[in-house]
Amino acid sequence: MESTLNRSVLVLNRFWQPVSTCSAKRALKLLCLGHAQVLQTEGEAKFQTHDFQSWLEYSATGAVGEVIRSVRIALGVPRIVILSVFDKYPRLEVRLTRRNVFLRDQFTCQYCAKEFPEPELNLDHVLPRARGGEMTWENIVTSCIRCNTRKANKLPKDANMHPLRKPATPRWRPVFGLRGYHGTPHESWSHFLEPDRKAVKLSA
Fold this sequence. Notes:
- The chain is of the alpha+beta class.
- The protein is built from seven helices and nine strands, in the order αββαββαβββαββααα.
- It has two domains: about 1-90 and about 180-200, no CATH class; about 100-160, DNA Binding (I), subunit A (Orthogonal Bundle), CATH 1.10.30.
- The strands form three sheets. Strands 2-1-7-3-4 form a five-stranded mixed β-sheet. A two-stranded antiparallel ribbon has the order 5-6.
């Protein structure tokens, strides 16, 4: 149950815009306090919102993928919650931090193309600091310790080591800055993280 309660939940503001992520445990607490509603992500009533009582009733139908159980109730683990009063817009700038670089590069070494656990990763200056390279999104990539040691203070052409993708400032996503987050966002998040612009209709 502990791993289930630590699962990441997408948090939307009251305008249904993604603003952050939290643990399932935190999401259920917000639901119980009446500070958030659960967004249904499956079935014919997809995108219907639920307060605690209606989510409890819906969970009893067995349609929810995962549930946590007590002696008396079974409560579905939400994938997305909508805050009842929070109307701030998401921060569009991504802070340049070690973890956010790893998230941008999907925990993958940009030289050997292998994915590693966070403790086995490092940051590499494409243009080494000794050659005037700066700490910017455009000059920092994720590398494994082995590749980082091999490249050392060499230029990419001298080491014959070039990043898989040209480093750039990432577009903001709720996962940036989330402590403990590692993995692929749940498919139900895609409607809010990467909406289909062709399906969006502008009102007159």
